[in-house]
Amino acid sequence: MIMENFYTLAQAALCETNPSEKCRLTFELFEKYHSGSLKMDKSVSCEDIAVAGRPAKPELVSPFKVEQRKPSTPEGYAAMLHAIAHIEFNAINLALDAAYRFRTLPEQFVADWLQVAKEECEHFGLMRERLLAHSYDYGDFTAHGHLWDMALKTAFDPLLRMALVPRVLEARGLDVTPAIREKVRQRGDLETCAVLDVIYRDEVGHVKFGNHWYQFLCEQRGLEPIALFRQLLRQHDMFIFRGYVNLEARERAGFSQFEMDMLEDFEKSFQAA
Q: By its UniProt entry, which CDD domains does this protein fall under (predicted)?
């Protein structure tokens, strides 16, 4: 019996454009990997995938041109749910890309990001169900491609990917989710509250993976992690830290006390501005 190659199947899942099929392939990949029925043949060429598989809709526009609707209206509320579903869909591609692309790291790196991909598929499915419950579907609103743009910016270095995606973008999700959940609760949509609780719980683990591998790569390269992180924040997306910082969730996700103090100082300086 010829064993299938993990990287071939991961590429197929990453390039799949149909969301339901992408999730099916990801679940299948997760099960086959953990059953030990796949070979990890790194000799298969790693394609430089510039555009991950996604459906024709939603139409991608500039972040500044995404349609803004009041969440107090049925359409505006559905647009908010759609935005969350879009984040989760992109997170599937980001996790699959990490597992597929960065082949010089220990195999545990693959296992961690494959788990993330599986959980992001679960999140997307749950949010899509909530969207359908409000008579809309994924693709019915415009969206932006900022998350995948970050994958391209960090494609050449796993350290940069770990620093800027889980430790910045996903960690920002820990900051904003509680406030979103409160808005949803006030609306009386307890089913969506339950979905947000699942997402919030799992995202702590995803950020923790990012923190672990960031620290691992810094140690491997003899780099000071805090100084490097401050430098990267200046060079890249420091603006996303403006506003509330969820220190409790970040601590559980593995941020050091020094980093949390740094973020808290940033939050206070922003509020005083």
A: Ferritin_like
